Amino acid sequence: MDRERDRRSRRDSALRRARRRLRPPRSLRATRAGWCFVAIIFGVGFAALNTGNNLLYLVFALMLAFLVLSGVLSEASLRGIRIERHLPRELFAAATHSVVLRVHNDQRRVASFALTIEDRALADEGPRSVGRCFTLRVGPRSRVDRRYALAPERRGELVFDSLRVSTRFPFGLFVKSVELEAPGTALVYPAVHPLPIGAPTSDDPHEGEARPEPARGGDTIGGLRDHLAGDGLARVHWRRSLRAGRLVVGEREGEARARLEVLLQLPAGLPTPAIEQRISEAASQVVAHLEAGFEVGLRTRARRFAPATGAAHRRELLRFLARVTPAQAEGEPATVFRPAGAPGR
After folding, report:
1. Which of 32, 171, 174, 338 gives the lowest tally of CB atoms within 10 Å of its CB?
2. Host H or E run for residue 212
3. What is the edge-to-edge ordering of all strands in the sheet holding 81-86?
4. Is residue 335 within 8 Å of residue 204, measured between CB atoms?
């Protein structure tokens, strides 16, 4: 199955590259005003030929020159454009994220005007738009940053295909476009939502079940350290943080973090909406309890991640949940997966 999927993916990629090579370097589309202008040109030309009026010939020539000037200026706006895409560190399904497009104009003397940039990603039906932005002017040998709102619809791999840059400059008669290759891949994590700490979120015991263990230890602070991803705000020593100019966490003597293990079960025959709901519940439990300072683990029938904390452990759990399928979750039982440096339990 995986070999057939890889073969199909390589074939589709080869077809896309072939289409790009055969595609014209620019695409041109007339606007409504452009079609009206072209119709007027034909009318003036027809009248000039039938009447032999020199004034009509002059007007006809000026209108043709107007078209040529429009093509030259629009081409100058698109030439030398280079775009970099900057994605957020984390992407979650059903949430809105800000994507930065850095637009460079590599021309030495000519500025680019009225650029509309459309970001395109691959979908089941082919490339589709995931966001667009507009910039009025990019000076020569300069750059501008523009943003658009990206809202992934589902978890998994998001494959970016290209960037379409178009302009109606200077007269709005035609839309000239160019497609810039900008391949890229981002992993979209499951949708998360706020949850109460330390309690299951539904009556179904298999749906993101949380099994917390209370923390143990005294109240005396034995030391201070810098705040790390996964540390809850309740652990921050605010007085020392204000003095140091950065977040500082107090380590309590004899402290042991509360631990929690999230159970995810995806039995065969479960409908797709229920599968996505259970995965979303599990991801919400992982994110909420890691932010609250818990040691969080994850268990399916086939895999088990030992409870731990930190940004690397959070990323590992979310990556697994972003890609997991019922077949992977309900396979043969396997060994416990522990992050590097995690103590054995």
Report:
1. 32
2. strand 207-213
3. 81-86, 97-105, 142-150
4. no
Q: Which of 30-39, 66-75, 163-172, 241-250 has the lowest mean pLDDT?
A: 241-250
End-to-end CA distance of the chain: 37
- Beta strand 248-252 with 81-86: parallel, antiparallel or unpaired? unpaired
Residues 6+ apart with CB under 8 A from 63: 37, 40, 41, 44
Mean pLDDT of 266-276: 89
The pLDDT-based confidence of 202 (bands split at 50, 70, 90) is very low
Show Cβ contacts of residue 2 under 8 Å, excluding neighbours closer than 6 positions.
Answer: none
- The CA distances from residue 139 to 81, 106, 117, in Å, are 11, 9, 16
Q: How confident is the model at residue 244 (pLDDT cuts 50, 70, 90)?
A: confident
E strand segments, 27-154: 27-30, 81-86, 91-92, 97-105, 112-123, 126-138, 142-150
Q: What is the largest CA-CA distance in the chain?
A: 103
What is the DSSP code (8-state) at residue 343?
P
Residue 214 confidence (pLDDT) above 50? no
Phi, psi of 264 (to 5 degrees): -125, 120
pLDDT grade, residue 10 (50/70/90)?
A: low
The residues near 45 (Cβ < 8 Å, ≥ 6 apart) are: 60
Q: Which of 273, 277, 267, 288 is nearest to 199 (CA)?
A: 288
Under DSSP, is residue 169 helix (H, G, I), strand (E, B) or coil?
A: coil
Phi, psi of 195 (to 5 degrees): -135, 150
